[in-house]
Amino acid sequence: MGADLIHFFTTNWLGQAIVILAQCLLVTVPLLLSVAYMTYADRKIWASIQLRRGPNVVGPFGLLQPMADGLKLVLKETIVPSSANAVLFILAPMITFITALIAWAVVPFDDGWVIADINVGILYLFAISSLGVYGIIIAGWASNSKYAFLGALRSAAQMVSYEVSIGFVLVTVLLCVGSLNLSKVVLAQSGGFWNWFWLPLLPMFVIFFVSALAETNRTPFDLPMSEAELVAGFHTEYSSMTFGLFFLGEYANMILLSALGAVLFLGGWMSPIPFAPFTWVPGVVWFALKIAFLLFVFSWTKGTLPRYRYDQLMRLGWKVFLPVSLGWVVLTAAVLQFGGWVPKS
Amino acid sequence: MLLQALAFYVFAFVVMASATMVVVSRNPVYSVLFLILAFFNAAALFILIGAEFIAMILIIVYVGAVAVLFLFVVMMLDINVTQLREGFLKYLPIGALIGLVLLAEILFGLGVLGSESTAMAGLGKAAPQVGAIDNTRAIGRVLYTQYFYLFQVSGVVLLVAMIGAIVLTLRSRPGVRRQRVAEQLYRPKDQTIEVVKVPTREGV
Fold this sequence. Notes:
The complex is a heterodimer.
Chain A: H1 2-11, H2 13-49, H3 65-75, H4 86-102, H5 121-142, H6 146-177, H7 182-187, H8 202-215, H9 227-230, H10 240-265, H11 276-279, H12 283-304, H13 310-339
Helix pairs in contact in A: 1-2, 2-3, 2-10, 2-12, 3-10, 4-5, 4-10, 5-6, 6-8, 6-13, 8-10, 8-13, 10-12
Chain B: H1 2-24, H2 28-48, H3 52-76, H4 81-86, H5 88-110, H6 135-143, H7 148-169, H8 181-186, H9 189-192
Helix pairs in contact in B: 1-2, 2-3
């Protein structure tokens, strides 16, 4: 019976389809739950920074607040402005949400815990994260509203600019690993936290983190939705679940970039201290803790820093990060070549 | 195998259909969106033949950067479609000629037209060895050895284009006040802050 079942799930196309579907659900459901509780954590952290209490009414410690918010979003009416382009208007939030979800297919949660262990994992993640901008720019155009359009233009320019430096950060990590496979990136950092890439590539880790803030439109780079100037930026005209999808996609993207940061620089599922009591903890727990740490820093920055001016943002991207990361790529390549540390392939 | 063939026909059909829509659709924004769809399905076709590296680069470069800027520009243009249609018949012969030349080039390159010798002779010589190693590595091995000079030359071509774009847009206007960040950062404390003891009810 057991052998039959294994046979069914590994060879029969129906069995394989069921397995793939189950894997997708295993990633998506916890991801959406983490998005919900990320909003809660965000609000609690900002509240602490501003000496407030934050959500504390719905459920114990306000723990049911995200559920109440989600329910409210679902129950409200979806309004499509009469002068908007209805098809693209509805399509835009879907694009944002779907691109935020499909990227998770290549993220390794533990040794071998990955839906698609493809050879070009990093490139896939980079490609998908560069698609997120379409949801925003289409939303801005389809809304037929000047605030939404200005927000979308800012966002597009910003995301394209910071992707360049993220690309160079990825190249330095690839040089040190010698593979584009994300599992191999993690395995190349085995050993304690002093073996992880954040230490030898510290400037790149900083650039990656700041670019991740810019890429997800978070403070201090939240100009696309800066309330004081553009109402709510590209999602000014959105209501109900169409807005909800933008919101979910935005948070899922934040978690995704934190996961990418954890894989590239913080040793993925590796335990920080490589001996007995710590290595018993399952890798997925360490991975979640690392993501949670990076997300905390996201919220912390949002609670502390004022917003950049737009020309300063562009200057930082093109005149500071791009030359520094380009120089660091050359430096890393030279050190690996002349120090004899080029990874064997 | 059947599934692969089916996938090929689906992707190929969508590429053709969306490429047609790029030309046919009346709204230029729709054209760019269909172009993006075509890029995507072309990337899917690359994945089907096992060229995953090229597929990803296609998405990153064309969809992630070039098409965003296209969309960016097209959305801000106020294009009058009927005005564009007026010249259609006038430009049709030139467009058809360019299309024919491109088609002929592909056929010559593949050796369908002309003899074997007209086809690119060295085509198979330094082709990456697919199969034994993953194709990122296979491309890297020939790109930086066999095709090193061509690679450098293509870099120079892009550099020329970049300089051209800068020359076209660069203009120095007199009387513009700019922020000089380096100067701001190098200011010492005694030049920037003045501590004043303000007497009560009198002000500075």
